[in-house]
């Protein structure tokens, strides 16, 4: 069966510091991969998605970037964090070419101080 | 993408059926209806999805109106653990990107 791993679970970082969040999927090949962010008490905002290695689509211009160095690895990065980058970051995957649903990781709660 | 409208909150008595409505009046013919739920501080969990026919699985039933402009998620015997925010989204099934989740319905199951 497929599983998704996302780490760390919580992170406190100072303003101006770099960020790297990692997500890996097991048990499937060539999945679509997604990064979402959720502000406190709000819905989920799609940040990036990828349909293959090295292929990244950005939904919202921001202080963040994403990379997919391997088929089942998705990384969210920032060179310099802002206070507004605080939030709950969620990685998700789904099968390509089908009406398959999203499957989410347990998320990373980022606090920028 | 079709926009969805859900009530912000609902209450349900434990053991009773919870019926969560979703309006998607601008849905197009190839868009599916997906339902997810999010328990506090966890990632969203997939529940069920459908195109035009009613669907049922071990978690819930999805009733889609004949004109497909609205749907209802039914939790047949709600438990306290079903307390969560429920999201209804519509999306073309094989599209690469996925719709941003809106505010959803906060379901409170009460003893």
Characterise this structure.
Chain A has strands spanning 3-7, 10-13, 19-26, 32-38, 44-52, 55-58, 65-70, 73-78, 87-94, 103-104, 108-112. By secondary structure, chain A is an all-beta fold. Chain B starts with 8 loop residues before the first strand and ends with a strand. Chain B has 111 residues and is mainly β. The radius of gyration of chain B is 13 Å and the shape is globular. Chain A binds chain B through residues 6, 32, 34, 36, 42-46, 49, 51, 57, 59, 88, 90, 92, 94, 96-107, 109, and chain B through 32, 34, 36, 41-46, 49, 51, 87, 93-94, 96-104.
Quick tags:
heterodimer, A: 113 residues, mainly beta, 7-stranded mixed β-sheet, 4-stranded antiparallel β-sheet, 0% helix, B: 111 residues, 5-stranded mixed β-sheet, 9 strands
Task: Please write out the topology.
The complex is a heterodimer of chains A (113) and B (111).
Chain A: E1 3-7, E2 10-13, E3 19-26, E4 32-38, E5 44-52, E6 55-58, E7 65-70, E8 73-78, E9 87-94, E10 103-104, E11 108-112
Parallel strand pairs in A: 2-11
Antiparallel strand pairs in A: 1-3, 3-8, 4-5, 4-9, 5-6, 7-8, 9-10, 9-11
Chain B: E1 9-13, E2 18-23, E3 31-38, E4 45-50, E5 55-56, E6 61-64, E7 70-75, E8 84-92, E9 105-110
Parallel strand pairs in B: 1-9
Antiparallel strand pairs in B: 2-7, 3-4, 3-8, 5-6, 6-7, 8-9
In short, what is this structure?
The complex is a heterodimer of chains A (113) and B (111). With 113 residues, chain A is an all-beta fold. Chain A has strands spanning 3-7, 10-13, 19-26, 32-38, 44-52, 55-58, 65-70, 73-78, 87-94, 103-104, 108-112.
Spatial gap, N to C terminus of chain B: 38 Å
The biggest beta sheet of chain B is recorded as: 5 strands, mixed
Largest β sheet strand count, sense and barrel closure of chain A: 7 strands, mixed
What's the β-strand tally of chain B?
A: 9
Helix content of chain B: under 10%
Principal-axes geometry of chain A comes out as globular
In the sheet with the most strands of chain B, the strands line up as 1-9-8-3-4
Reading the helices and strands of chain A in chain order gives: EEEEEEEEEEE
User: Which structural category fits the helices and strands of chain B?
Assistant: mainly beta
Strand content of chain B: over 45%
Low-confidence stretches of chain A: none
Tally of individual helices of chain A: 0
End-to-end gap of chain A: 38 Å
Largest interface: A-B, 30 and 23 residues
**Class from helix and strand fractions of chain A:** mainly beta
Question: What coarse outline of chain B follows from CA principal-axis ratios?
Answer: globular
The percent range for helix content of chain A is under 10%
Total number of beta strands of chain A: 11
**What percent strand of chain A?**
over 45%
Q: C-alpha Rg of chain B, in Å?
A: 13 Å
The low-confidence parts of chain B are none
């Amino acid at each position: 069966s497929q599983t998704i791993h996302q780490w760390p679970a919580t992170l406190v970082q100072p303003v101006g510091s770099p960020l790297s969040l990692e997500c890996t999927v097991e048990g499937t090949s060539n999945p679509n991969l997604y990064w979402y962010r959720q502000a406190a008490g709000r819905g989920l905002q799609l940040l990036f998605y990828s349909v293959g290695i090295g292929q990244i689509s950005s939904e919202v211009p921001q202080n963040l970037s994403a990379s997919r160095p391997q088929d089942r690895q998705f990384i969210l990065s920032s060179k310099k964090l802002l206070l507004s980058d605080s939030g709950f970051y969620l990685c998700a995957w789904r099968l390509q070419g089908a009406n398959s649903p999203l499957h989410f990781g347990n998320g990373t709660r980022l606090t920028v101080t | 993408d079709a926009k969805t409208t859900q009530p912000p909150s609902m209450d349900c008595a434990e053991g009773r059926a919870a019926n969560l409505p979703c309006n998607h009046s601008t849905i197009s013919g190839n868009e599916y209806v997906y339902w997810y739920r999010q328990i506090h501080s966890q990632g969203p969990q997939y529940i069920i999805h459908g195109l035009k026919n009613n669907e049922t699985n071990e978690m819930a039933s999805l009733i889609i109106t004949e004109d497909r402009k609205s749907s209802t998620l039914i939790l047949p015997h709600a438990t306290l653990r079903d307390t969560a925010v429920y999201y209804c989204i519509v999306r073309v099934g094989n599209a690469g990107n996925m719709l941003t989740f809106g505010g959803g319905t906060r379901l409170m199951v009460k003893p």
